[in-house]
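WARN retry 2 of 3 for item q-0093 after timeout on previous attempt; input resubmitted unchanged.
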Amino acid sequence: MSLVLDPAAQDLLFREARTANTFTDEPVTDEQVQAIYDLVKYGPTAFNQSPLRITLVRSPEARERLVKHMAEGNRPKTAAAPLVAILSADNEFHEELPQLFPHFPEAKDAFFSERPVREGAATLNAALQAAYFIVGVRAAGLAAGPMTGLDFEGVRKEFLDDDHTPLMVVNIGRPGPDAWFPRSPRLSYEQVVTTV
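OK item q-0093 returned
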């Protein structure tokens, strides 16, 4: 059985996609980011909790503040990318549940009244949404350079608050010269899938 999605789209989103390490100078517009969000917001999360929050780092001053918290090898990439996004989990996502889960607004208090429960749910579901976001960047014809080599606490203090947990930083733009490392191996179907 073949996939329904056109093979060219499969290549764009998965087979030919790579983590970009260099970018051109072409800007990434707010309209492009909005189009990406307007697509990926439909990706599923538990209770439709949608805890991902996106902080776009555009100004030179903010970029400088972020670069100092990146691992040394990630600093040049983050300094040069046309757009950088900090993806974080909102640990107070439950406040939006009456709007997002209207058929059971009591879920806010029934399941998420305790902060440790919210933090676990927010981290898992925002990570799902971060993956959707990366695929959405690819769907926009752009390249993503997601990174977790950073000082998470430093990024939180510099850009967020105690209610948000940083997950990753994503460089975004059109791929530049020598943007890609060679494709790394993947596990086979038999290595991953078990039938019981």
